């Protein structure tokens, strides 16, 4: 089995919101945080991340400000704004869907 899992469509926003809910991060830091908390099972590509960050900021769920990264470079730092409620809602929907799918996968011929 592959070490990394494919990211299901629609989950990237939720994962970004979760990552920045743990503290302000620059873009690359968000990639690393998701990789870290997934125990290296998820790896987000930069080509997917930055459009998602733009979308989340445009929707007002995250905010950004320029700062200096650990290696003394200019970096845009993102933090959770109105996205706290959105994260909670999306996590609840995700958990409900996971329960439904788990139930389907555990069904037996006798139950049908």
> By helix and strand content, what is the structural category?
alpha+beta
Helix-strand pattern: HEHHEEH
What is the count of DSSP helices, taking H or I runs of 4+ residues? Answer: 4
Poorly predicted ranges: none
* Average pLDDT reading: 89
Question: Strand content of the residues, in percent?
Answer: 5-15%
Helix content: 40-55%
- Strand order, largest beta sheet: 1-3-2
Q: What's the Cα radius of gyration?
A: 17 Å
CATH class, named Mainly Alpha
What is the total number of structural domains? 1
Q: How many DSSP-defined strands?
A: 3
Structural commentary:
The protein is of the alpha+beta class. The chain has a single domain, classed as Arc Repressor Mutant, subunit A (Orthogonal Bundle), CATH 1.10.10. 51% of the residues lie in helices and 14% in strands. It has 4 helices and 3 strands; from the N terminus they run αβααββα. Strand 2 and strand 3 form a beta hairpin. It is elongated and about 65 Å long. The mean pLDDT is 89.
Features:
112 residues; alpha+beta; Arc Repressor Mutant, subunit A; three-stranded antiparallel β-sheet
Give me the secondary-structure topology.
Elements: H1 12-21, E1 25-26, H2 27-37, H3 46-58, E2 62-68, E3 74-80, H4 83-105
Antiparallel strand pairs: 1-3, 2-3
Helix pairs in contact: 1-4
Concise summary:
The chain has four helices and three strands, in the order H-E-H-H-E-E-H.
């Amino acid at each position: 089995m592959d070490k990394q899992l494919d990211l299901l469509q629609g989950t990237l926003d939720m994962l970004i919101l979760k990552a920045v809910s743990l503290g302000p991060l620059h873009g690359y830091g968000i990639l690393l945080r998701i990789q870290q908390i997934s125990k290296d099972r998820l790896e987000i590509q930069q080509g997917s991340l930055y459009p998602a960050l733009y979308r989340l900021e445009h929707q007002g769920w995250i905010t950004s400000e320029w700062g200096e990264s650990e290696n003394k470079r200019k970096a845009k730092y993102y933090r959770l704004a109105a996205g706290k409620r959105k994260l909670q809602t999306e996590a609840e929907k995700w958990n409900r869907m996971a329960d439904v799918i788990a139930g389907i996968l555990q069904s037996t011929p006798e139950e049908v």
